[in-house]
Structures are given as structure tokens and as C-alpha cells.
Amino acid sequence: MNRHERRKQKKLITDVNAVQNELLKAIQLHTQKDLNNAEILYKNIILKDPKNYEAIRHLGILRQDLGDYEGAYENYLKCINIRPDGYEALNNLGAVHIRNKNYQLALKCFKRAFEIKENYVPTINNLASLYHKLNRPKEALEMSSKALQIQPNNLITLNQHSKALILNNSIREAIELLEKYHKTFPDHEDLALNLSTAYKEMGEFEKSNQIINKQFKLNYKNLQYLLGYVHIKENKMSKEHLDYFEDQLKKDIYMEDDKVLLCHAFFRNFANQKEFDKAGKYLVRGNDIQYNIKPFDLKKESEVYEKIKKLFLNKETIKWKKSKNLKPIFVCGMPRSGTTLCEQILSSHSKIEGAGELTYLAEMSGINQIINPDDIHLEKFENIVSNKNASQKVRSDYLEAIKSHAEKSSEYVCDKMPHNYVLIGLIKYLFPEGKIIYCKRDPIDNCFSLYSHKFTELSHQYSYNQNMLAKYYKLHVELMNFWIDQYKEDIFILDNEELVNNQESVSRKLIDFCELEWESKCLEFYKTKRQVRTASIEQVRQPMNKKSIGAWKRYENHLQELVSSLNE
Q1: Residue 13 has what pLDDT?
Q2: With b meaning 16 or more CB within 10 Å and e meaning fewer, what string describes 528-542?
Q3: Closest by CA position to 224, among listed 244, 194, 186
Q4: pLDDT given for residue 15 in this prediction
Q5: Residue 129, φ and ψ in degrees, nearest 5
Q6: pTM for this structure?
Q7: pLDDT in tens, 40-52
Q8: Which residue from 16, 101, 232, 249 lies 20 to 30 Å from 274 (Cα-Cα)?
Q9: Is residue 375 helix, strand or coil?
């Protein structure tokens, strides 16, 4: 190497070191929330070195922090073009897809990042969180367990693992874990919120409310705590709280998701105070925002229903070898139609284990539109119906899957997934020994209950628009009429109003339909200690009552579109 080459190499090393020092300084400023100066430095580095992976990636993170998701998206794509194996950028890109509700694209990014680097905890946690959003319990637990092995003291990982445990019905284990770390980190907001949720699902409302009330006082600006606070009926927002949040809404500083949460918090707050007109205005406002995020495609749903009908019109059931062990009970119907109450009654029986809302059959069949309306694979569904080997596999896989939800003494496992009403034909085809219970409720009561609830992510997106909700309800009625016509005596129709008015006689008929001896503790369903993960958490922890019948009338002035659409 001659003198000129040595000088050139020395200058190159000096330049690289200078760029690296500048990058470290930019990251430090970014960490300190000095975003303007950090952005200037990142851009300066990129000007000198247009292919500097780390500078481009961190500029993407900064843009993401500023709410510029389009700019962040572009930065991460540049990173991946520079370094196709850049797992950090792939992970960041997945996070942007999550923000934009593109869950399948996010899943692809996270999976690719995981393939490149299996021990990168941020990606593993993101996979666990996404599987949780998609209601895929096993995968969520698998990922969170892996992250916990790598970083056993990481609080984000611990919290994510506890959420996965709750999703997998291992709630006592989750509570034990959360209690341990909540004592050590009492002000950690996510741990506290998750512990409060776990207590609530087990019916331990006093413990749940204590946490919410305490955390709300510490940080009332946290919208999750705000929503939890006003869900406690005796609570109401102070004038300070109302003024602050109304001012924030006027300034339009919130993203759409947060606006929806805040509107629902106002709705609950004014409902608690019996100011129903104010409550109704905020309910409509929040739901309009939510629905506009992604309007529901009713035509697509209708086309799927019609294709399913054709497959099962006068179709004969296969004479399977009957299961010697567990048999399934399928409780279905429109969400908020009384399915949780029905399951609570059933699971109070010594021979029935309530498993909650299982997604096994939806996932196995290809009709898994509950969380993601686009997750429908009719070709898979049609193959199961037409191919006996495929049918046999789904049948055996499902019966094997429900074993984990039952005690040794159980004869039945209750699968309370409301949208299984779409799959009644398949259920009859695969599980002739199973029981099908269809829950129905007054149409307006049912629809209002849906309309007044904030569901997770984009699930039940049809329920946020009054006209669409009415049309969806009617579409469900059409399909149910078809199933009832096809299977007549094989479906038990549980009318919510009849159950409320004649609790014992209807409950006895329900147990008799399941071919079991009557047990009086089915009348005291509210005493049954089990995890409940639905919007009916509180209702099923108290004796039968008529409080929800006709509740919509308090908001009648704000529900004219719903009422008129249902009556058309």
C-alpha cells in the first residue's frame, strides 16, 4: 500500500467514524425527545451517505413518533432495499402496517424478521401481540413464552405473556404473574391495566375497580384508564376532566382510534349520570368515526352466506363413529344476544365445561371473519364439505383441541362463539352428536347492545353504522331461517326474553335438550366461578333481571335510523 492509498484509507476511516459519532448524537437527541435537531442530523447523515441503513431507519422511527406513518413507511422500504435481511426495518414496517390495520401484511413482515433473527425480542413481542389481536391463542402464547425465555425480566414481555395466558384461559397463572410484578412496579400502567382486566374477567370487580380508580387518579389522561373508570357505574368525570378532554377533541389532536375511545368514555360517563341525550350524541359521534375507518362490505358477506346455503341444501350428514369422550355444545347467535348468559347457565352444570369463544372451527374451516372480515377462504371450506378425508381431519382436530378446556368429569365442552351460526351446516355435518343452541333477542335490544359497545380493533365493524347494523341483523335472520328449515328439531332456540321471564322452566328445557339431568345450581349461574371474556362480564355475575330489556328507548332520539331500517 503506497502513501496515497494509506491517506485515502485513513480519511475513509475518519469519515466513517465521524458519521457514526453523528448518528450516535442524533439517536441521543431522539431519545431525549429533541426531535427537530435529531431530524436535522439524520438528514445530514443521509445526505453524506444515501445508503446509511441505520440513519434511514431511525429517521423512519422519528417520523413514526411524529405521526407521519407514510413517511416512516417510505423510510423502512428504503432500508429493506438497502439491506433485505434488515430485520429491524422489517419489524418497524410491520408496526406501521398494524397502525394502518393491515394485519396480514404486518404478519408477513414480522414472520420474515423472525426468520432472519429468531431471538430479536421486539419482533417476538410484536408477533405475540398481533396473534392476540387476531384471536390466535396458541401462537400468541408460543411467542410470548419464547420472548420470556430470552428476557425474563422485560416488563413488556411479561405483560404480553400474561395477556397470552388470559387468552388461553390460564387466567389464574396470569393473575399470579401480574400480582407479583405489580407489587414491584405499582405505577407501570400496562401491568396495572392488565391485572385489572384479569380480575374483572374472574368477577373480582372490587379488586379490578380499586386498581382502575387508583391509576386514574395518577394519570387521568390515559384513555384506557378513563374508559375503565367510567365503566364503573358509580364513577363520573369531574368538570376538570370534562373540560380537558372536550378541549382536546376540539383541537383535533387525537388519532381516530383515540377519538373513538374518548367518545365512548363520554357516552358511559353521561349514561352513568342518566344524561341520556348527551350520552347518545357522543355514542353516535364515536361510532361514526369508527365506521369510517373501514366501512363494512355487506355484499361480500351476503355472497358467502349464499354459497354456504347451496352447499348444505338437503345435504346428508355423514354417519361418523361417535366420540366416546367429549361432545361439543355450540352456543351461537348474534353477538350480544344472550350467548354468554346461556353459556354461564350451561357451565354451572357439573357435566358441562364452558370454554368461552373458541376460534378453532372458524380457523379450521376457512371462515374466520370474526376479527378480520377479509379472512374468508371458501375454497378451503368447500374442500372440507366435499372431501371426507378433509372432513375427518377437521372433526378429529377439533375434538382433540377442546380436550384442553375440559375437566375429567365433563361430558360436554361449550363453544360459545356467536358467529358459529354461519357454520351451523358444517357443525351438523361434522358433529351429529353435538348440540346446537341458537340465542335470539328482541332485534332493537340486540342491535342497540351492539351499537353501544366498543369492540376490539376492527371486529364487528358492521355494528358502528345504524343502517348497516340493521341490514346485517336481517342477513343473519335469513341465514338462521335457512338453518332452522333444514335442521328443525336439532337446533334449540333460546329466546332471551322468555328466559328472563321464565327462568327455571326455560333453563330446564335447555339442560334437557343437552340430554342431562337437571341441577338446581344452573339457576344460580351468577355464582359460578369461571373466566368470562365478553362484554357481558358484569351482567352474568348477577341474578337474572330485566334491566337491559328496552334500554334502547332512553336513546330513541338518536336511534331513528336503526329503528326505521329494522322495520323496513
Answers
A1: 44
A2: bebbbbbbbbebbbe
A3: 194
A4: 53
A5: -65, -40
A6: 0.84
A7: 999 999 998 999 9
A8: 249
A9: coil
